[in-house]
Task: structure prediction
Amino acid sequence: MRIKNDQFLRACRREPTDYTPIWLMRQAGRYMAEYRAVRERYSFLEMVKTPDVAAEITLQPVQAYPLDAAIIFADILPPLEGMGIDLTFEQGEGPVIHNPLRTPADVAALVVPEPRETTAFTLEAIQLVQRELAGRIPLIGFSGAPFTLASYAIEGGSGKDYRITKRMMLGTPDVWHSLMQKLTELVISYCHAQVEAGVNAVQLFDSWAGNLSPFDYREYVLPYVNQCVAAVRELGVPVIYFGTEMSGMASLLRQTGADVLGVDWRIDLDEAWAQLGPGVAVQGNLDPAVLFAPWGEIERRVDDILARAAGRDGHIFNLGHGILTETPVDHVARLVEYVQMASRVA
Amino acid sequence: MRIKNDQFLRACRREPTDYTPIWLMRQAGRYMAEYRAVRERYSFLEMVKTPDVAAEITLQPVQAYPLDAAIIFADILPPLEGMGIDLTFEQGEGPVIHNPLRTPADVAALVVPEPRETTAFTLEAIQLVQRELAGRIPLIGFSGAPFTLASYAIEGGSGKDYRITKRMMLGTPDVWHSLMQKLTELVISYCHAQVEAGVNAVQLFDSWAGNLSPFDYREYVLPYVNQCVAAVRELGVPVIYFGTEMSGMASLLRQTGADVLGVDWRIDLDEAWAQLGPGVAVQGNLDPAVLFAPWGEIERRVDDILARAAGRDGHIFNLGHGILTETPVDHVARLVEYVQMASRVA
Result:
């Protein structure tokens, strides 16, 4: 299907755009009253697993704001359930995995499921959203990257210092590599199924990889990211690779092979791009907490980011991480319009 | 007093050393049985506030291992109590501030105390330690840097996304600057008092500054760090400036004027040093979680770090952040000896 507003996809491919396209990580979320209204009736996992609800939530922000891309409402962890991992979301605590992977036997017992069966709800939601969008803007699919999925599965939730994960990685590398290979197969087939269902781009979230040293990332993580990126790119859609706290790993990020690299707010955008080198698009990088500031301060920072990206093709405006829960909605609306207006080529 | 083992101080000044000196952040801590034995008899704040106990704990690691520097056992938050801040340490929760700064009136009410009175316990501990060390190795004093103190005082404890701090910083910059100026005066006089009491170097911990964008660091934080660094350097002792997640801020770190910059493990040491440029010493940067790995893996990573620092004066070996609570003590002992042995100039 032809996409009418293809600014985002053009930027992914580093083609000239009319203005800097913008979408926001976690743009479908608690900061919106429309989301909270649905959330009152369903648990978080019910929302993810009910296709018409997930589709409705996906569409809320793109109906409210002139965003240049939608992103499917889903979560990185449900695909793990099909492997044999027992997942719940606890009130105020986030995800809890009740049978965390700790032994070689735990890893050996994992199966690689068929995501067309075990995550059919997300694939169906993608189809519903695409029917509704009807080519107005592109739809982004996503998956957790293997390291971030592994660290959740090992720690049993959000880790603090990832010592259990690192102990498995360094102490029993065979077990680690076997786990990462299984997760890589899962990620690839899950992304494949999403592309079949109709997504126009894929973002790999490696949210926790920034807790690794370059030494460990290079040896224990990068080869698996490479496999995922290469497999998804072969399907003909651009791949965005995103992590936080990775400012010190520019050369390794480039080696992922991703079309677009997500950059958090801990580095100036031009500095990040210079370190990454030519031939890659960049997504970012406003500090999400800045959206709580008075509008004038937000504008100063947006101007700064746009100025640092000026003269280069391939900038996608985004926050440096997911939008925060209580972000003022009027600032979100103004941000989207301002980025598009201020960056428009005269 | 002449220091017999001055390898650490020589490295701070980028003078040639016989080997790479090593100390470990939080080297006096829970991972040691000797520490836990004392901790059973006192609360954490009692330990900090009882000079002979603080001195005993300071000396535990330098008696157990051939470390090249001691660091006074203290905490960054007690100096805030003299300003009017009500601080406790809750079991398993860390520090809690019961009257967090939220309004202009809260900030206006803060007084700048005389640390010679309000933190006399730490100054006395410094004197006791120096008497005991008798010039064997240098003693490092420390303080929180203004931003990190401000964010604790505003959030009321460890923040997650620092949205309250950033809201004050961007929303009421006059209040922010007034708070930072008061904290800067506190930090300077506290460090001054520590140098008078006998410390041989000072580390400024800006543990949370890595959560800022370079834009905000430059405008709202750097000028105050500059004041602190300049004032302490004038006293004739080297200053180490340490933060985590600051790999994207090399040029700003250089502008602090510190003699030594602490680097976390999220960047290769040679890459960090290249970005920082010549004329500065570097401290770091082993991932603390690596100490849970089998010794062979630890050794590979130490070799890598030493190789990346080879040929340059001014490398101080350390972890990239504080040592973790359950770190195996035999790995700590081996690490200290191995760094000194492997780096020794033949």
